[in-house]
Amino acid sequence: MKLSIRHKLFFTLLLTSTVVAASLFLFLQWSFDRGFLNYVKSQELTQIDQLAEQLTSYYAKQKDWEFIAHDLNLWRSIHQEVFLLEPGGATYQKEGKMGHFRHVAPPPIDPRGIGPRIILYNTDKQRIIGGPANYKDSLTLRPIQYQDEVIGYLGLIPVTELSHEGDLRFVEQQTETFALVTLVMVGLSMLLTFPVTSHLLRPIKALTKGTRRLIGGLFKTRIPVSTGDELGRLSADFNILAMTLEKNEKARQQWVADISHELRTPLSVLRGEVEALQDGIRQTTPHNLELLHGEIMHLQYLVNDLYELSMSDIGALTYKKIEVDPLGILKESLELFEKRFHDKGLFLSVTMPANISHFLLADPDRLQQLFTNILENSLRYTDTPGKLEVAVKEDKEHMKISFQDSAPGVESEHLPKLFDRLFRVDPSRNRAKSGAGLGLAICKNIVDAHQGTITAHHSPHGGLEFQIKLPLSA
Questions:
Q1: Does domain 318-471 have CATH number 3.40.50.970?
Q2: CATH topology of domain 230-312
């Protein structure tokens, strides 16, 4: 039989409460027995002190202990005067010239049996009367004083357990009271355990229900955070997870929609051109074939970019890193674009240090792809006439490369999104000019793979500035 967490929590709290109540009962019982026994001992010592005063008055008349040394009845009668607890009493009369006291009435009852446990000693602590004759165990001794001198001692054999019927009955009543209190505590624990369990399980139920909704694809699910404990933090983390899944789902849907749009356009053009050739509307001329070839090449570039981007995302893009001269790679990339910039009417300015004292541990082909994509982006979007300034700086740990072009620029809210895949500032722009929106996303993955950073800013010339920061080799 599998127990639910509700039952486990209920039985755990109930067992804990029962154990605590039972432990408290045993402790209270032990403490009361011990305390009551000490109370009885203290009462007996008080009676011993009273008996010492009574014996002192007798001693004052006789000046020694001979009057009681062999008179057991008198001994019993004297301490019964102190220990008598019942109404009435004993009467005594004095007989003879020796002043001995004789017991007339029957001695009253000693309730706790303290009399047989009292021993009278002289100043040398030699037994005079009372108690066992050869008792040698530990005693509680109380001195008997007369005129500021010790004339003897009273010894009391300590009680080790309660034996008086009244004491035992009182202890039994207290035990029953403690047991009743314990049972009430256990009963209250059972009653309180139900609401406490429900309160503790409420966030867990919400988490369970929310998790099932997430499994069903309802990523808008959120659960209330009602506590500040671990369950509350878990609920907050659940909401963050749900928000992340919702965001990723929207990104996936947008990704599929954008890919479908990017692939549909060249395929539609190809289909239209081929059907026109088949229907005889267009002639199979070198010019028309060149148009078809251009659409095919554009489609191939798009598929290649998508493939490289997906490989980079899963970490499977191949990087062959070696010690390379970054300035040499940048110069080669700039030379490839120099004529295209000139033909479009864009001025290309380059500022580089005379030499670089450090090299980069990088993949030269990927670095060239990085520089090519950024140069292609500036060439495609910069208005004519315009310019592009390329500047290279280095410190002890990093190389910094900046690309600053002229107008047009980008709104500030769009700057962080430029490296998102398939992002376009103007989605309605001509695809032939704006491209698929994958070049900068690939650039970011290349820079990340080289443990560098790439950021977009406003250019002082009215356009965009891309700043690349790459770590130098030690």
A1: no
A2: Helix Hairpins (1.10.287)
CB contact at 8 A, 366 and 333: no
For 69-125, write each residue's pLDDT tens digit.
Answer: 877 888 877 767 776 644 344 444 444 444 444 444 444 445 556 767 788 888 888
Q: Where do the domains of the chain lie?
A: 1-118+164-208, 230-312, 318-471
Residue 183's pLDDT band (boundaries 50, 70, 90)?
confident
Residue type (1 letter), 241? L
Question: Cβ(135)–Cβ(119) under 8 Å?
Answer: yes
